[in-house]
Amino acid sequence: MGALCCCCRSSEGEEISEMEMKAKKTAKAMAIAKHMSAPAISVGSESEITGHGLAVVGVALEQDHAYWEWHIELPARVHLDTVLFGVTSKKTNKFYKDLADKVQPEEGVSSDVNGTNWMRRVELQNGDVVGVGMQQSDLPMVQFFLNGEPLFESAINRFRGTVYPAICLPESSSDQLKIHFVMDEDDFKQKEQGQKFGPIIVARSIV
Prior knowledge:
This protein has 207 residues and is an alpha+beta fold. Helix content is 16%, strand content 31%. The longest helix is centred in the N-terminal third of the chain and has 12 residues, at 18-29. The model is unreliable at 1-10 (pLDDT under 50).
């Protein structure tokens, strides 16, 4: 019986070691940072997000350009316009404890307080793909795409400091909505935007 090879070859003929493939899978599995996300957020396999509140990706956007996608699962004929997409600053357990103390059921809290001031609403239905492109050296700094079409009115001109990809799920639809976070360019459904911005680099950024 011949020996098994622990390497595979990419289309360019370069060898990818078993360790490199394992690291890639690990980075993908760690994408949604539970310790930076709201207590009611659940993360399943393949970065499937359910629940409600802020879900934060554990990868700081340190590069000049980056692109990622959110793939939407909803029941047929259900439309949502209360999901927020964008970026946010680093969050801690203390942030969510303080936020719970500030929430007033009748009034809510401002986007500056709840961490969504650099996020925008996108109307969704089953099968939609929301792409987000970030650029540090040009305006707008955050751009949004729905099924490949740019949402110009939703662009965010500026943000400050280190930011992380994020999404905010509404409590009202937590039993219907599933969202998959995609940062691997091989899994992008909108290849044109992915090639323009490039994927998130995770080498030193996972927290």
